[in-house]
Amino acid sequence: MSARQAVPGLLRALVPLGLWLLAGLALAAAFALAAPGGLAETVAVALPLAAMLGALCVSAPYVVAASTLGGGRSGRALATALVAAIASGLLWVVVGSLWVRLLALGPFPAAPARFIAATALFFSVGTLGYLLAIARCHLRAAEERLRAAERQALEAELLAREAELRALKAQLDPHFLFNSLNSVSALIGSDPKAARRMCLLLAGFFRKSLGLGRQREIPLAEELYLAETYLAIEQVRFGERLQVAMAIAEETLTLAVPPLLLQPLVENAVHHGVAQLIEGGEVRVAARRDGAELELTVENPCDPERPASRGTGVGLANVRARLAALFGEEGRLTVDARPERYRVSLRLPARPAVAG
């Protein structure tokens, strides 16, 4: 252990000693007022008795535990505390009388008489001191119960979010699968080779996505691989009508994202954007780091005469709900819907993906 590490431990050890000395000096001052006498004798009586009271107060947690056992009421706890405090005060007076008799055998023969004169003081201090120790234990117990309740509330919230995410994924995966099967069905009659290639791409996509779907988060590089594979699948169907542009900042590739976050966005870009245009268009996927945030965007051309609800289906709603469940206010989805362009932007915390 280094010297720097040893200093805090030493300070923590000195705090109780300092408190004991302060308590002893306060008791000595009160003793001197109640039964005036020599300074040395006053200190010889008060300081050891203060330490003895501290030793008696060590039993306070057991009294608190006994009074609250089985969910005891506050009245029972108060009665138990009063009885224990009075018993502690009486025991402390008895111990003090024995101590001053020992002192009388030495250099302080007047100590017993002074102690008898201040018996009421010592009994009051002993009783009050023990009550304070019990009150401190009750406060600690209340703090622990509060922390436990907070932990339980947090665990319940996390479990609720996990359940929500599982439900959202259950909706998301079939949605993509049905659309993909429809695409294969459309190609079987017109272009069997393209249909076969799409089936191979689909097999690779689902093999990869099923493995990643069990993870809470993945590196952006793996998420982009899924998005690119999906777009390659759709390029088989749409041919030159579908163009793809990727603008990915190098430093974002190792950042963490939820699995299958981009897939519903690029799916919407194809089916609600490019597919609705005779001449087709370009789907652009971009990623950049903006301070403590990762920004992901998916942009596509669209029909200026499209219905107002176009592009706000199940996929977009799922992404928004997943961001809210995982990141709260730190996860945001914004839509910029212009007459001929549709742009979805995601913002989430920029943090490295955990290996494994």
Summarize the structure.
The chain has 356 residues and is an alpha+beta fold. It folds into two domains: 149 residues, no CATH class; 159 residues, Histidine kinase-like ATPase, C-terminal domain (Heat Shock Protein 90), CATH 3.30.565.
- Please report the distance between the alpha carbons of the first and last residues: 33 Å
**Gross morphology:** rod-shaped
Helix-strand pattern? HHHHHHHEHEEHEEHEE
User: Class of the largest domain in CATH?
Assistant: Alpha Beta
- Give the amount of beta strand, in percent: 5-15%
The strands making up the biggest β-sheet line up spatially as 2-4-5-7-6
Largest sheet: 5 strands, mixed
Number of helices in the DSSP assignment: 10
Class from helix and strand fractions: alpha+beta
CATH topology of the largest domain: Heat Shock Protein 90
Number of strands: 7
Structural domain count: 2
Name the CATH architecture of the largest domain. 2-Layer Sandwich
